[in-house]
Protein: Response regulator transcription factor
Organism: Lysobacter panacisoli
Amino acid sequence: MIGVLLAEDQAMVLGALSALLRLESDIDVLGAVTDGESAWSELQRLQRDGRAPDVLVTDIEMPGLSGLELAQRVQRHGLATRVIIVTTFARAGFLRRALDAGASGYLLKDAPAEQLAEAIRRVHRGGRAIDPQLAVDAWSDADPLNDRERQVLRLAGEGMTAGEIATQLNLSQGTVRNYLSESIGKLGVGNRIEAYRLARQKGWL
């Protein structure tokens, strides 16, 4: 049996995924949670009980801890659990970030239900399961931002001032402005708001 943990903040979607996977004779749904921190806690609990999930299926945007951050945490702690992202975000930038975070699969929610079960089997065998068109797009539209530029631009787009960003990230205001200027230049736009919108549209934030 392939042990699976589900993390999805929309209760209806979570229920549907759980019900569909329980119909598969070789898949055992060990848990279903609605946010990233709960997923991490459940993952640790199952690990302690000797029932560590083989596969974690998670959405990207969830309260508290995103699916990408969850995948990074799994990777950082060296857990054997493999991660599949299931999302509405058909953006190459998100796929690249998911792969960088150690995810083994990236599927869209509008894909046929049987694709998820097959993806779980493929990933469990050590393979990858990635939406083919996104895989092509991901390598033709590279993210020009580095991690710090991405972090600063995300906070600026959320309405924080340079001073507030500097305090939160323990940087000088001048350094924050430099990161914003670099981001604006790399993205070829006129200001930080346009930079934030474009980066979000591309899936780079």
